Amino acid sequence: MHFGRLITAMVTPFDEVGAIDWEATGRLVDYLIDAQKSDSLVVSGTTGESPTLTDVEKEALFRFVVERAAGRARVIAGTGSNDTAHSIHLTRIAEQAGVDGVLLVVPYYNRPTQEGIYQHFKAIAASTKLPVVLYNVPSRTVASMTAETTLRLAQIENIVATKECASLEQVSQIIAGAPEGFLVYSGDDSVTLPVLAIGGQGIISVASHIIGDRMKTMIEAYLDGRVQEAAALHTECFPVFKGLFELPNPVLVKAALGLVGQPVGSVRLPLVAANEAEIDALRKLLP
Prior knowledge:
single chain; 287 residues; alpha/beta; 8-stranded parallel β-barrel; 8 strands; cytoplasm; lysine biosynthesis; DapA-like; amino-acid biosynthesis
């Protein structure tokens, strides 16, 4: 399974009472594929506010986005949690919904050992025929998966990629030791170009909601050998990469979508919407 170079970790649109806004979700899927050039979409990841989505909502999202994408982009379901049995349950639901792969986050809060992390992912991968993308995001999970554990997991046939948010040094170690066909994606927009430069596959992105077309051009320029053009585009995009994370994600990317004419509603508690001053600062960053 090839998920492409530019994958968007899609927000979940909500209406004025906090329910999923299906009309806005459909518009967003079309916009991310057609206007922002996403090769794949992650549904119900952290950016999609997975902690506050019910299993019923997640299943409905998986089915809806698969149908709406209609083969124009791959659909990756966020089915990871800190409960292995629950993650297996969600992964089976996602497989039945017709998704193309699953994204599994390192278990959070319960702080497993490296062996615990390995056994967690191994058990989920064994429960499905779907391709599995690992997700290491230490700032959210506290426990961090080491390069050694990632490479050990990469030997499992259907674990095909990782989204890595640790240091560039760790990304380098994984790329250097990865078996053929195992792909490494950056999970940090601001290092998309450096990760490509050391052999990474691409980015699982938040900023691609807003500047995905520019990011795709940057990626293609680098791959075509137009390094100076890619570097210039990186510099141009960098303020957006950083600015969208001045508040907890996805608060500002949801606000930004509203500012560019793609309203997706607010966030669910315990997140709170940006205030007027924060939105004014965001407006100055947008293209």
